[in-house]
Specification:
Elements lengths: L6 E9 L2 E7 L11 E8 L8 E3 L11 E3 L4 E4 L3 E7 L2 H15 L3
Antiparallel strand pairs: 1-2, 1-7, 2-3, 3-5, 3-6, 4-5
Length: 106
Amino acid sequence: MSPRPGEVWLADLGLAAKTRPVVIVSRHDPAAPRALALYVPLTTQPRGSDYEVNLPKMSFLREVSTANVQGLASSATVRLERRLGTLPAETMTAIKTALVFALELD
């Protein structure tokens, strides 16, 4: 499995036997030395901060969601259970901008 940036996956994050939707933010690299993917978790409880990006209503998500870039993490790709869909390019651009802010990359 090789998830691509902008894809939303249902992932087992080891939190009380729950799966959560996450958006993949790591580059697509089928030859990566480790089977890991960087992700940003999605939440349905936004706080209105610069660390969040509101997603448009997506048919593959049950509720309107927000990407919480402050929760940036990595996971083994085997913990990604199934692909739910793909975010629009403009939403991914907003997530990348929020990551630049969160990580002070500018």
